[in-house]
Amino acid sequence: MSSRETILARVRSALADIPFAETPDAVPVPRDYARTRTGPDLIELLRDRLVDYRATVHLDTPVAELARARGRLMVPPGTPDEWLSGVDVVRDDPPLSPAELDRLDGVLTGCAVAIAETGTIVLDGGEAQGRRALTLVPDHHLCVVRRDQVVRTVPEALERLDPTRPLTWISGPSATSDIELNRVEGVHGPRTLEVAII
Amino acid sequence: MSSTFVGMPPFPKAASRAVGDAQLRHNLRKATHTIRDKRAAVVAEQPDWAALRAAGAAVKTRVLRHLDGYLEQLEAAVERAGGHVHWAADAAEANRIVIDLVRATGETEVVKVKSMATQEIDLNEALAEAGITAYETDLAELIVQLGDDRPSHILVPAIHRNRAEIREIFRVAMAAWGRPAPDDLTDDPRALAEAARLHLRERFLTAKVGISGANFAVAETGTLVVLESEGNGRMCLTLPETLISVVGIEKLVPTWRDLEVFMQLLPRSSTGERMNPYTSMWTGAAEGQDFHLVLLDNGRTKVLADGVGRQALRCIRCSACLNVCPVYERTGGHAYGSVYPGPIGAILTPQLRGLGSELDASLPYASTLCGACYDVCPVAINIPEVLLHLRAKVGASGAHKVEKLTMRAARRVLSSPALLAASQRTAGRFRRLTPRRLPGPLAAWTDTRDVPAPPPQSFREWWASREEQK
Ligand code: SF4
């Protein structure tokens, strides 16, 4: 018997007490939690939460202006030209090695969804986001969030996301609390997260 | 589980040693209280917490009651998305599978992101024997690995080390593993984190094989989910050409939508944050990676077979129960003798490994039954109920002197009046859960066979009467 068969047989015999006719759907899952909420202004909330994580937040500053201040930036496919005027741009074509990405000043991306309540930005590798390494290795991440991409709650975000795409949820710069519980920002991911809400 | 920590004494002895270590006790106290206050604050701001908790418990119950079907569904979904699925009945088989997969790449080094499943099976040791070096990449795990040590907390495994010790460990041991610590390294947490960043950077950028666990696996879509803080998880999951994830069969959730519950429950319960800094979700061979999922049993089906104990498999490893446990606060994680410390360890380890050894049989007694763990648990595992159930089993087996286990666990651990006051809400509260097993007054403490349930009086009263008898 293969281990697959062994494990499945063990599971079935362990569950001998479950009525044979019971279907998974027959096990009730109460979903009385909130899908959305009313509350403070969505954009204000997102900004507060991001600042709480020690991200830098700009409201309605032209993206190109912010980008020009950051040196040589990786720019993924699908980035709008208006974000790039006068910016020192590096393209991932042909794909850069991790070591090459490490030598860049930063990366400029869009996002798929942002969650106001938790201060979370989700990337899905689509338009203006690129493969996952692009937003991981460079030390500075300038991320553009359009107002129509902001939702309030986690359930609302999941509704908009496609599980078949590789997703990265980002809530502030990387951090550790492993040394006597002192929070230190910036371990392995980008040490600075700069968010432009437009 | 493959092994107990080498030479591990039973809980009472190990606990007594830990209780005597003032530094450890200080660190633990600070850590558990800090995290638990943060947790309380972010849970309080979530108005639908109780409903989320009920949903989380129910989703996991659904998975467990129909686990066979969900496992097959997950396998099909992962394979459809270009991933490979392997099944490991025990630790030895899981290690063999991983070793073979690493060997097939021709590599002799792998980077690892913290995973309790791989720790449970002693994967690093197995890889080392096979000539493969596994580099731990979480800051805390790095501290533990460089210090040739064992983790003591699910979430902050190096909670037993202070900054001066960490600096010493880095200075002495980093060079042997790769880039040495800078000469002028101070014990400022920023400097220590920076040293770790530099030490690991080159390794991440050149790694060909990554090994991880997963917090969740979605049966419907084949999506795996890893929550983390530092970014080492993203490094290990994203940069290597080959990714191997070792995942316990209890980690499943049925649907994509179910993540909306757990992505709220886990970060708040665990680190006390609204959201953890990074979460990665991927399905199959993401971005052309060679992806292998190793599904691990290793005793989980034994836990599943126990109608009462089964609920322990709902655990999402948030560690909230550790941080509120008066016993854990005194003893630290090492005393529990397995990778799963604290209240969850006290019910999970004896079920995974069986009640054969004195250590494992003593774990269900490593509790005052105060019920704080049940209250904070985001998936509502009734830990006191399972503890009592396991005590009954220990008693019924007749293999151990229950009175001895109980007395020693209690005497060594609960040596402070403050602690006893804290454990006022005690056994009596849970008596009605196991009425048939209840002893008459004080009978539990004299009869070693039938009545391993708690006494009907409060723990404090019982304690006072013990003191008088001395
Ligand atoms: S038993 Fe509950 S509280 Fe404890 S680690 Fe598991 S999920 Fe968290």
Automatic annotation (TrEMBL), chain A:
Residue intervals of the LUD domain: 102-197
Regions that span the bilayer: none
Origin: domain of life: Bacteria
InterPro entries xref list: FTHF_cligase-like_sf, LUD_dom, NagB/RpiA_transferase-like
Entry-linked SUPFAM superfamilies: NagB/RpiA/CoA transferase-like (SSF100950)
Protein name: Lactate utilization protein C
Native organism: Actinomadura logoneensis
UniProtKB/TrEMBL annotation, chain B:
InterPro entries the record matches: 4Fe4S_Fe-S-bd (IPR017896), 4Fe4S_Fe_S_CS (IPR017900), FTHF_cligase-like_sf (IPR024185), Helical_ferredxn (IPR009051), LUD_dom (IPR003741), LutB/LldF (IPR004452), LutB_C (IPR024569), NagB/RpiA_transferase-like (IPR037171)
Every Lactate utilization protein B C-terminal domain range: 397-467
Residue span, LUD domain: 71-295
Alphabetical list of PROSITE patterns matching this protein: 4FE4S_FER_1
Source superkingdom: Bacteria
The protein's name in its UniProt record: Lactate utilization protein
Keywords: 4Fe-4S, Electron transport, Iron, Iron-sulfur, Metal-binding, Repeat, Transport
The 4Fe-4S ferredoxin-type domain, residue ranges: 312-381
Pfam families listed in its UniProt record: Fer4_8, LUD_dom, LutB_C
Listed GO biological process terms: lactate metabolic process
GO molecular function, one term: metal ion binding
Residue numbers spanned by region Disordered: 441-470
